[in-house]
Amino acid sequence: MNINEDKFQESIKFVTANYEEGAFSSEKAWRKLMHSNTFDWRRKIAAAAIACVVLAASAFLYTTLKPADSLQDKDINAGVEIITPELPSSSVEARLEFTDAPLQEVVNSIEKTYGVKISGLPEKEINLTLSYEGTADDIIETINETLQINLAIEKEDTKLSTEK
Fold it and tell me: Whose CA, among 9, 55, 114, 160, lies 20 to 30 Å from 34?
């Protein structure tokens, strides 16, 4: 006899010596497994539910808080994004996105989008992050209030200020 046959014979002797009726029942094994503390269904269901909630929240946040570089018509160098096409009137509403953009480039973008001329730009370097939808008058008023400056829109030889 070789070594493999010896091991096989030992295994057969062990099984015959220790065999009991129903000792190798798969039904009993499953019942024991289902009632053991290591296989707690409630914990696993709770963990799966929490994982689903976290994944759903992550998907919601990802879709609502997309990075600015994934938006359309992005002017990467200026940090300014014009969402609606250029409009020739200051009374028409447009949507603009500014991401850490210098105020001069923000003003240039507003002038280009609404077809207006803006004066009163301060000399100091100011960067602005803002998402805005509205008219030129409203955005200038918002910037003035936010930055405590005095920008003004000039229309047909008349200087309109948003100061109150």
Answer: 55
Domain membership of residue 9 (yes or no) is no
Shared-domain flag, residues 36 and 97: no
Angstrom distance (rounded) from CA 88 to CA 128: 24
pLDDT, tens digit only, all 164 positions of the chain:
578 888 888 888 888 887 777 666 777 777 776 666 555 677 788 888 999 999 998 888 888 776 555 444 444 445 555 555 444 555 667 888 888 889 999 899 888 888 889 999 898 888 988 888 888 888 889 899 888 899 998 865 444 455 54
Asked if 159 contacts 119 with a C-beta cutoff of 8 angstroms, the reply is yes
